[in-house]
Structure formats: C-alpha cells, structure tokens
Amino acid sequence: MNMELKTIIEPIKEDLKNFDRYFRNAMRSNIPYVDMIARYIVKQKGKRIRPVLVLLSSRTCGNINESTYRGAALVEILHTATLIHDDVVDDADTRRGLASINAVWKNKIAVLMGDYLLAKGLLLSLDNRDHEFLKIISNSVRKMSEAEILQIAKSRQLNLDEKTYLKIISGKTASLLSTCTEIGAVSANVDEQTRILMREFGEALGMAFQIRDDLLDYIGKKSITGKPVGKDLIEKKLTLPLIHALSKASKKEQISILKIIKKEKKTDFHIILELVEKYGGIDYAERKAAEYAKLAKSKIVALPDSESKESLLNFVDFIITRKN
Questions:
Q1: What is the predicted pLDDT for the residue at 83?
Q2: Structure pTM?
C-alpha cells in the first residue's frame, strides 16, 4: 500500500481490519464452488478506496457502528460485481494483478458471479432494514449503467465533447464515490445539511479521481499503473486530455487523429501524445482535476476538526497526485 495512503487510513486502521472480516463473511456462500470463487475475489484486494471513504466519512460525522460496516460492505460488494461485469464486457484478462474471473472461469460463470454478488449486497441491506442505503446505492447503479452505455455509444461515434465527458464520469465514477461518503454520513445519523455536504464532497472527489485516472493513460507507466499506457485509446475512449486537444486542433489534425484511433495502431500512440502536448491537453486536465479537488475540500472545511476530517482532506490530495 502507498505510504501516503497508509498515513491517511491511520484514524480507521482498526476499523478497516474489522471491515475486512465483515466483507469476507458477507461474500461467503454455502455452495462450495461459489464460495471458492468468492474467496478468490477477496484475494484481488485493491486499495479499498471505497470502504476507506465510507469509514472516514462516518468517523468524521460521528462514530463508526455496525451499520457503517454494512454500508461499506454493500458498496464494496456491488462495486466488485460491476468490475466483474466490466471485465466480461472489456474481455479483460487481469484484475488487480491477478487473472480476472472471466479469464479463469469463462464469461458465463463471471456474469453469474456478478449477479450473485449484486443479490448478496442487496440482501445484506434488506435483512438489516438498511433501506436508506439501498435507495442511495440503487440510484448510483442506475447512473453508472446509463453513463457506461453513453460512453459505449460515444466511443463508436468518436464525437465526445467535454460536457458529455463530464456527464459520463459523473455517472461512472463520481456517483459511486458520493455514495460512499453519503452512506458513511447516514450511518452516523447526521442532519440533512451535513448529509448533502458529504454527498457533494464525494461527487467532486469522484470527478477529480476519474480525471486523474484518465490522465494516467497518457503520463503513467505500466509497471506502476498495472495497465498499458494508451489503453483508453485502444478501447476508443476519448478522455479529457485528448478532448481538449481536439477542440483546439485544426480540422486536418482532428481527422488524422481520429483515423489513428479507428485503426487501433498502438505504434501511432506517440502521434496522439504529441498533439495532446502541443495543445496543452495534459495541463488542462490537471487544472480541471485540481478545480474539483478544491471544490471537494470546500464542502467539508466547516465540519468539526478531527483526525478523520484531516484524512479526508489529505485523501483529496492523494487522489490527484497518485501514480496508479
């Protein structure tokens, strides 16, 4: 784990251990074959950004309790389900450094396993009457699905503008991170105004997170990010650095770049990168991420000072400077 992230999670270090146990138990199945796959999924542990956000948000707003762990588990289970389905759609071979579920057990099992996790997450909330959590997460899944479909449609047409790009990442990423911060706040029984502030904090954080993620496709290294540079372009996903550059480029340059993307020639990636650098696409995306980071911080600055609040503020900085 990144050293900076280790410092950020310090106020909830023990809570995170409790969450890990809770999450493992929530994933279990009485059917051995399903349980085996569930245990494999648990091994694919990432940075746990979403449960960390739920726990830090709850601690910032009050105290962590049993419902906080349930909320964090719900978010992580449903997020994991969407990742499994994403890997099937993208025909991905790896996930977090391990072979993906579809690579090991094929697409049919992967789709069914994603469905199983969706059901597990929903039942976890229903069994404990966490109806508010269900309302929040269901709205998030709807937004994520709509955004994913919009992105696929736009990637086929290769005509994405900045406004539509921001709409897509708001649905794809910001909606889930705002779900984390709102569920954390709700579990701490906050007033409506604080709940809204925490939701808006998560939304702005999510926008900064995704813009940074898209930037890493241009400036990252495979050995650090775990994915090849230019992966988004291979998948015909236009992101902010290129969208901005194309808006400034000549008609001739636009046609040339779109032809390269359509041909999917990895060897021509340097031509696209040169255009992005020529028109300041990377600098523009970095400024945009910083704007959302500043907005995120402004939402919680008035909350009572605490170690957890400080960690949330530091988390924003971590998000826009991370290398993977």
A1: 87
A2: 0.90
